[in-house]
Amino acid sequence: MKLVRVVAPHFVAGFETDGIVRRTAPILKRMRGWTDERARKYMLSKGWKASIVPEQMSLLLDTTKPNLVPHPIDSQIMRIDAS
To answer: Is residue 58 a contact partner of residue 3, using CB atoms and an 8 Å limit?
Structure first.
């Protein structure tokens, strides 16, 4: 499974794929079940940029805990609280 990062003018989100888009951020839910080729064409038509997250980085991300993200400075995990 590969993690793909999508950068658009108004959001940054991601999805997981194994040739078929399996899991997505809520803003990308329309793409669930699409082939990689269909997703690629859609993102190009929208002017979005996509990149595969390196395996080492995706291992740091625990998608079962959405309030944990990699720290942009030192690649450590930090907690983001809503308060």
So the answer is: yes
The continuous run of DSSP H or E covering 45 comes out as helix 36-46
How far, rounded to the nearest angstrom, does the alpha carbon of residue 62 sit from its chain's CA centroid?
A: 12
Q: Which amino acid is at 81?
A: D
Domain boundaries, the chain: 1-54
CA dihedral 30, 9, 47, 56 (to 10 degrees): -70
Tell me the per-residue pLDDT of 15-62, one tens digit each, with 9 for 90 and over: 999 999 999 999 999 999 999 999 999 999 999 999 998 875 555 555
Distance CA 64, CA 48 (A): 26
Q: How far is CA 41 from CA 8, 26, 46, in A?
A: 14, 19, 9
